[in-house]
């Protein structure tokens, strides 16, 4: 009876594990389930869980048997019968000679009091060994003889092609099509604030929190190495200047993020950093703008900087 | 046949047992220190207390000092008793003991000071390597001599494992440590790049196999049936799993190099032989656990058997997990993350540690003719230790999965979600803290054992010589008619050793020889040039500071890595790397494409104070690089050694090496001085390290500075401006 219960519980656990792995599935065929490594992990964890469950029940059972043994055997005949088929299956899998009859398989070896039995190789073990050898042959055939499975470099090509396709598909629908040919400076305060946040996280280590420069050039003065137009700044952020140590950010920031940070950088013009680096590059004449507007931009920038500093 | 009387030497066993306990506690305390230093980077107080240097001390301590001494203790106890003869030579036993302790002390005296060959678990420099080889051979000779003087006709399975261990460790140690000495404390591996990586992981993997597994299986076959007083479950299983295990294990090394620049065929061999290893390994687990059949009631009461049960279960778990980690799709997630240390520590803390504790609790009272001082304390040790393992491993599994998923997550527009590597590190710090606490619990358990052992020793009286008697082997013995075929090998130790040697050589030869001999395995890249003198010195500093303990130099061919680091690494890029520095763990980001990515001044500031450039970084500070003067005394010797190893430096270059070095250093120092607004001397070690970092991974672009062009060119110095 207990063994039957245990088998039922194991099945329930298996079902639950199966259901759990199904919930992670949003689209795709059943084959795709296994191609996702996360699902592999779930299956493996479930496998260990099942083993742990069975071991626990086995231990509990053993303890019960021990207790019963101490109180005098009261095992019911009915229980024995019900578990017969389980025992039969177990015996088929293990082919173990029961402990009571172990002298049947005892060898005449004896080393410092250690005796050796000669139980048969467990059939489940042997079958597993053969299966692993078959796996090895099939694996080598697929990768190196038939060529039906991709080697690592080919795998990368496939992965990149798929990613490129997915990205194009996404960009068709997304309002994210900014690039250096059409980018415009933002004036929306919330987006400038987002730009300030990006600046603090990524740029400030080299250009200082207030844009005054350090490892990288000063961004507040009117001297520019690669141009002060929003398109120029966007391009510098996007592709970097690897020769001079400016990192390309295109793989780490999205186009709209680069637009935000580039716009924010322009708002730093004319602010007074705490520790400005000496000018680098060419002096670029400020565009002529109404003084009132100028100070407005200035104050917005200062506010943004302050807010960003406060939020960090 | 009259019985001869003889005496077993318990003193050597006791000495090794005490050494096991002492070094075990020390080695694991170092582990706790490095674990906490990931949470509190301020703990990297001095150069010799930095994570990279101490990590090597911890791994060497745990493997060779803790497990090593325990193996010797177990072998020196079980071997004579299984052969009914004392160890052949007390002198060799003592050379083995004191020699081994001397090696451990010399590891403590070199590794924290940056004297390292940098190859994992083989870090010790060449003079110590020679010492190891001599002591190991003393052990082997003593063992074989004893076997030849035996009074037991057949060799028990434990001894097969001891023999395989001796033979294989000798081969592995010698081949992986083939290096060209520069000075007493410096050498270069004779292999380079891909080949060096393959040899190293053939060694590294099989150090696990033949130092942490086969000898300990031998101990299991002796101590488990002794402690449980039960017969071994299956003799036939012993035979099959022994030969299958030693033959297959040796092939599996390349699974440490999946998705690297190692040729695909070698990677695939690593994968399939790892999968085929599951059942031979489990054969040992089955034979161990089923030996306890009919003794499960004893397990409830005996701490010794409890330790054995958990140890063997941990062995079974990690030998299933290891092959699964060798599958490419799982390896793609796990490699370079904390999943690997989690896996390793299930093996070392669970399998090795708990086997050793069980043996100590069984052995010490026996040799002191008393009973264990407190079974209760031993049980407390068991439960605290088990909890410690769980607290160690579970957070690291979570950490590994978390970090790997973060590395690989993309936004729909094709950018990385966590483009800044540091974000994936700061996320893990609470898990690192939990791990360090788990490790501390484990050591608390060991300290309880120390107390228990001291009390036991105090209550007993040591029996240095244990009397036994047995008749000598009869000369006119004939094998019974129905003798099982394997019995023949069991009574012929020399043949057994020869067969074992053949079994363990095949895999290594098939994998390593073609990788070295067949040119197409490492496609040449025309643009790859030797390091300049300054860069080579910088590279040696990188090795001294063990940067490769936390930083890999291997961009794998994944979209997530190509996007983060740049072009994936090619085999031909490493042809001048003696030794290779691919690393095995990314606590920090990969550095293979770091060359030219940041300005010199970024590196300078970052090295002096990492948090100044990356807030929240857990990297140690390396401010001494800015104050130490670069020692170029060995420069020409180093270049000549490289030339001997096939790096095409021109003789003119080597002759003018110092001037070349200075020219490049002055250029970098001038740039640094300008950017930093402070005077930077070209003689600082920092300048050399920066030169090396800026060179990494840029050759394939095909643009070389004058300094690089000079390395292979004839003629006189032109670079100076």
Can you tell me about this structure?
The complex is a heterodimer of chains A (312) and B (721). Helices cover 60% and strands 4% of the residues of chain A. Among the domains of chain A are: 2-94, no CATH class; 189-311, Cytochrome c-like domain (Cytochrome Bc1 Complex, Chain D, domain 2, Orthogonal Bundle), CATH 1.10.760.10. Chain A is built from 11 helices and 4 strands, in the order αααααββαααβααβα. With 721 residues, chain B is mainly alpha-helical. Chain B has 2 domains: 3-367 and 379-406 and 418-473 and 498-511, Cytochrome c oxidase-like, subunit I domain (Cytochrome C Oxidase, Chain A); 533-712, Orthogonal Bundle (Cytochrome Bc1 Complex, Chain D, domain 2), CATH 1.10.760.10. The longest helix of chain B has 34 residues, at 375-408. At the A-B interface, helix 3, strand 1, strand 2, helix 6 and helix 7 of A face helix 2, helix 7, helix 8, helix 9 and helix 10 of B.
CATH architecture designation of the domain at 189-311 in chain A = Orthogonal Bundle
Q: Which blocks of ≥5 consecutive residues of chain B have pLDDT under 50?
A: 716-721
Mean pLDDT of chain B: 94
- Which spans of chain A of ≥5 residues are poorly predicted at pLDDT below 50? 23-32, 72-76, 288-299
Q: What would the CATH topology of the domain at 189-311 in chain A be?
A: Cytochrome Bc1 Complex, Chain D, domain 2
The largest beta-sheet of chain A arranges its strands as 1-2
Rounded mean pLDDT of chain A is 76
Alpha carbon gyration radius of chain B? 27 Å
Key words describing this protein structure:
heterodimer; A: 312 residues; mainly alpha; Cytochrome Bc1 Complex, Chain D, domain 2; two-stranded antiparallel sheet; 60% helix; 4% strand; B: 721 residues; Cytochrome C Oxidase, Chain A; 2 domains; two-stranded antiparallel ribbon; 29 helices; 4 strands; 64% helix; globular; disordered C terminus
